Amino acid sequence: xxxxxxxxxxxxxxxxxxxxxxxxxxxxxxxxxxxxxxxxxxxxxxxxxxxxxxxxxxxxxxxxxxxxxxxxxxxxxxxxxxxxxxxxxxxxxxxxxxxxxxxxxxxxxxxxxxxxxxxxxxxxxxxxxxxxxxxxxxxxxxxxxxxxxxxxxxxxxxxxxxxxx
Length: 165
Known about the structure:
globular, 3 helices, mainly beta
């Protein structure tokens, strides 16, 4: 199967951070803003889920959201998820199906962490899923500014230059 097969099959669209996505679930129920942490402001769906696809030469640029995001591996080449944690350290999660090589089927990116991703192999593609709770809202999405990240995390310059637009 090719990336185009999945893009067409799931009616995926381009994602602002890079790659392709299709929302597959949005809870009908919401959590009122008054019951959420102050960072949210308004009500949010209980949870949302998407398919996310990156072709070998694509990457998802550094960004952050206000919710935890659970990543799931489905098909293709492993996906490397680059996470700058709250202490400023870079963690690389290997999302894939080969546990002997340190790959995991699922991984969490905690709320507020900068993160980016790209397929492990330039000639492959990665089909993954992302589940967000409270549910994803573009009001909670912040694309990184390369220069600001470089000032804040100069020790991560190589990753930032590779994974920012």
